[in-house]
Write a structure and sequence with these properties.
Elements: E1 10-11, E2 18-22, H1 26-36, E3 40-45, E4 51-54, E5 57-60, H2 79-100, E6 104-111, E7 114-121, E8 128-129, H3 131-135, E9 141-145, H4 156-169, E10 177-183, H5 188-202
Parallel strand pairs: 2-10, 3-9, 3-10
Antiparallel strand pairs: 1-2, 4-5, 4-8, 6-7
Helix pairs in contact: 4-5
């Protein structure tokens, strides 16, 4: 099923409430919460790259000379460090928009492999937030960060972290809780981590 704002959303196991998706928009997250998931959601973001939401759309930093690839210096970054970077990124976006460009920020979107520049209005500081801040608005949703390097298998520490989240949160087993893993595209990293979660639940 195609969910607008949550590309590649799908259930991994017919027996367990384990799902994957790409990085959702704010509206896509709302659609998932209200129409397609269990009463309570455990959300696990497995992206290493710092993310900022601007007017409900997710954006990341890119190297100007390699715009379609993740910045490799984030490889192996700890969850608390990437979340600190996201808080600073929000501050920088708000300061730049309000201080230099008449409440606007210059962004770039990818269209058919090409980058298209566009000015986005940032009318208030509330228009910009981190993923953690976005997900925190719903008490039915618990948000976790397990940074996994793109195009690499999860590290042993990632297995342990996912196991703790799944076991301690009580996913499945009639609890009414679902777990959702997201990466950039909802493909490699999120699927690998979702399979780990299923293995843990079936153990």
């Amino acid at each position: 099923e195609v969910i607008e704002g949550a590309p590649n959303f799908r259930r991994i196991s017919p027996h367990w409430p384990v799902y994957v998706t790409a990085q959702p928009t704010a509206s896509g997250l709302h659609r998932l919460k209200t129409s397609h998931l269990e009463q309570s959601i455990v959300w696990v973001n497995v992206r290493e790259e710092p993310i900022v939401y601007i007017n409900g759309e997710p954006y990341v930093l890119r190297d100007q000379w390699n715009t379609l690839r993740n910045i490799k210096t984030y490889s192996g970054i700890a969850a608390d460090r990437v979340e600190q970077m996201e808080v600073k990124l929000v501050e920088d976006v708000v300061a730049e928009a309000h201080g230099q460009y008449n409440d606007r920020i210059l962004l770039h979107s990818e269209v058919s492999g090409a980058l298209i520049p566009l000015w986005e209005a940032v009318e208030s500081a509330a228009a910009v937030c981190t993923p953690k801040q976005l997900f925190a608005v719903d008490e039915r949703l618990s948000y976790h960060r397990v940074p996994v390097t793109a195009e690499q298998p999860p590290e042993p520490a990632d297995f342990d972290h996912i196991a703790r989240i799944v076991i301690e949160s009580g996913v499945g087993g009639g609890t009414g809780k679902a777990v959702v893993f997201n990466c950039q595209m909802g493909l490699t990293r999120s699927t690998a981590c979702a399979v780990i979660a299923v293995q843990i639940l079936e153990a």
